[in-house]
Amino acid sequence: MSQSRLSAAFAVAASLLGLWNAPMPAQIQPRPQTTAARVALIPDVTGQAVDSAISRLAWTRLPIVRLDTLTTAQKPGFIVLQRPDHGTPVSRARTETLMVATARRRPPVNVLVDPRLLGRLAGGGTSDAPPAARDTVVPDLSGRTPALAAATLDAAGLRRGRETRDYSDDMPPGRVYRQEPQPGVRVGMGRSVDVWYSLGPHRAADTVTVPPIEGRFIDEAIRALKEHTLRLGHVDSAYRTGAKGTISHQEPDAGTIAHRNDAVDVTVDVPPRLIPVPSVIGLTRDAARDTIEANGFEVGAISIVSRAGASATIDSQRPVAGAMAAPRSLVDLVEVQAPRVATVPDLAGKTETEAERLLAANNLVLGTVVRHDEDSSAKVVDQGPPPNRIVELYSRVNVSVGRGAQRDDTFLRVPRVISMTVGAAQQMLADSGLTRIAIRGDSVTAAAVVRSQSPRAGTLVRPTAVISLVAEEVVTLVPGLVGRGEDSARAEAARHKFSMQVANRHRRIRFSEVVVSQTPVANTPDDGGRHVDVDLAIPIVPPPVEVALGLGIVGMTSDGARRIWRRWKERKKPKPPAGIDVHLEGQFADPPVLTPAGGDRLIRSTIEFGYELDAPPWDVHCATQTLVKSEKPRNG
Fold first, then answer.
1. Cα separations (Å) of 567 from 23, 457, 558?
2. 293 and 277 in contact (C-beta within 8 Å)?
3. pTM
4. For 81-100, how does the pLDDT look when each residue is reduced to its tens digit (9 = 90+)?
């Protein structure tokens, strides 16, 4: 082996030992994810139905808080407003609050009704109670001085929280240019509001580049920011299983141009500190809220259940009492109330518009309309529930309208709705003229799947027949990502509509990255979050060092192998005797000439030469002293 190759091999070995013993430099640290994968934005769900909005927000893994809002401009059950607003980074939000439109209600009627007379039409409306009196709306503090901001918060029943001062190019000094929570968000009375006061505009020429501090500890980040004349700003905590206290997100991003002395806000991943959930069963809504907040939690969704003779108390909660959960987690409540009922009026002979007005006057809602005639003057010929039925307030009443349609002289064929979702099955049955539907099952939602139906598909029934459906929720299993590379694991998670995040990266003696563990484990039921955290094993040295090491090993071993192979070939290969060269000169303008190729031994048993197939045949001219005779070449 040459001296230069020995030197290169020793240099590679020395550099590898140095990388093994020395601390890992910044350039070979696990690179953070790209901005597109790291900065996820909250989508716009305003104007959508509640179930659709919650499904669309599921990937963010943010707790969803649903608040009712009385409105006449938006249909009940649709989103009027969301806070934080769409476009906000998911990492900057703790919860997503959805303002849901509800119809204006009349005061409840105190009527004692036999619970056996209560009926609910499938897909009927809900009777959520208005927001509790202890809620308030966060006022807009933008442009206010400290004294005016404090007075505004006191008037709204809120407390002053953290006060931060920073540079702002859009707001004069001493005035509020940012606040958290945002204006318009409904929060509990006594909630603190953080504000940022302007120090005036930045100096245009005094800018620096924000360094990357993700993946570092707080003290390391402070030193890195100080070296770039920046400072650490607001520090948020994100609870994550297996977290080590490193920074998972920074704002502004690395590489952004910022002003000197600007603050960089960070989010630090910390392991969850679990605390027990208190019991609020049997308490009123206000007392339950006080108990939950006093124990470090927040109130989530509040569902209303009607039960004869019940008082307005909490009937169940989730998580259950005594369960261990992270601080500031949401506790969903189910409140049981006495039913508020209405009597279904007789809509026969009325137009669709008249029927809708009559139902609204009785605190009911017009449901599915089956039209047998497109004429606007067509009358109602059938309805469900029937007249004089006692139902809950704001229940839906489905009707059939048409001139020629008769009430009970037409038979309809029942369509097949098995394996459909409940929402699709209801729509298909309504399109077929069957408006009376009963659904049974545990926790039935619009996304549940129909497992059986009665009557069976193809049966002829009257339009007033009741179609009974049995539905169940679909269990989603967590996909298996162990054994895949990072890109392959992300693609597999996306194929199952899951999101994946690398929780830890471990260096191993290997030449490619691979997922070695995941949480939750594969093939277990998903809890609804559709998210998987994985641990990734990556090579002990970066790919460039691997290539250099491989080249060094090849350089040390391949030289001797080549020499042995060359000697073996030379020993096996017979030395060619002096032959005859065939020279085809020019563009085959002249016939080939045979000349000796070393020595004067020109006696051969055969002589072979070739030329292009499409060249014309020539005579072969040989030297006069040879024993070769000229002969015309054969065709082909």
1. 47, 84, 14
2. no
3. 0.25
4. 888 888 888 877 877 888 88
